[in-house]
């Protein structure tokens, strides 16, 4: 990995299950990443467990006390909360040492608005959970989209079969109203879909064996958290472990991994119970003006190799 050039200042908004933690490791440890804050949103795991998972990940990365963790929305904007719990408790169903820090007193959406306004045009947002916190931040500051450098979203399924229903991917399904607000708000936005990551960011057992053999505590942490993910996938017919969130994080700091993208119009269904959270991707400009960049192809082996290098380097030493 190239050291230090092209630094990316970022805020990661997360519902901290296992792959969210792997994305946090990119923000915490990649030499091009400058992680300003972590914000927690209601999603895949019980909320208080998500907070603890984020704090554990910061600690395991050797960054305890250096990156604030802000508590956000405990429920979606207008719907009952639905937790998929595909990753167990999100921390490998085991105990870890007590984290060195606790959560911040400042709320998540308030922190997003403050940090962006302190450095307009300089901060990227990475949203790897439901979009409730981002939508709330937009309602607090309607000019926020123009002041965010770029918004990266892991969500949607590109007119394809979802991972929660036949129509919807989890992050958009849980809070479609928030997704609708965010996609209409005017952000400069890139979407990485479940469709793409299922095809190009699912690691085989042979690849996972390579990571498990890395002799660093960070690699052991990865393997422990990834095991419930792999076991759940086996029960639903997916061989290996899926890495949508960590792929999205890695593309932010390693854009050379992007092989193809396209501009299209993306919208989310909010009214139909049958297709709740369905993400419409329309590439016909004559029908709808594009509002989103969509990643269509990545260097799958390159993504694995860069992540392996991250685990080989291990946790950042305390200064």
Q: Do you know the CATH architecture?
A: Alpha-Beta Complex
Q: What kind of oligomer do you see?
A: single chain
Question: Which CATH first-tier class would you pick?
Answer: Alpha Beta
Q: Strand sequence of the main sheet, in spatial order?
A: 3-2-1-4-5-6-11-9-10
Number of continuous helical runs = 12
Helix coverage percent of residues?
Answer: 25-40%
Global morphology: globular
Specify the CATH homologous superfamily.
Ribonucleoside hydrolase-like
Question: Ranges with pLDDT <50 over ≥5 residues?
Answer: none
Query: What distance separates the N and C termini?
Result: 21 Å
CATH-defined fold name: Inosine-uridine Nucleoside N-ribohydrolase, Chain A
Q: State the domain count.
A: 1
Cα-based radius of gyration, to the nearest Å: 18 Å
What letter string, H or E per element, gives the SSE order?
Answer: EHEHEHEHHEHHEHEHHEHEEEH
The percent range for strand residues is 15-25%
Helix-strand category: alpha/beta
Mean pLDDT: 94
Task: Name some characteristics of this structure.
Inosine-uridine Nucleoside N-ribohydrolase, Chain A; two-stranded antiparallel ribbon; 319 residues
Please, could you describe this protein's structure?
This protein has about 325 residues and is an alpha/beta fold. It has a single domain (about 10-315), classed as Inosine-uridine Nucleoside N-ribohydrolase, Chain A (Alpha-Beta Complex). The protein is built from 12 helices and 11 strands. The strands form 2 sheets. A 9-stranded mixed β-sheet has the order 3-2-1-4-5-6-11-9-10, with helices on both faces. Helix 1 (about 20-30) links the parallel strand 1 (about 10-15) and strand 2. Helix 3 packs across helix 4 (about 130-140) and helix 4 (about 130-140) packs across helix 7. It is globular, with a radius of gyration of 18 Å.
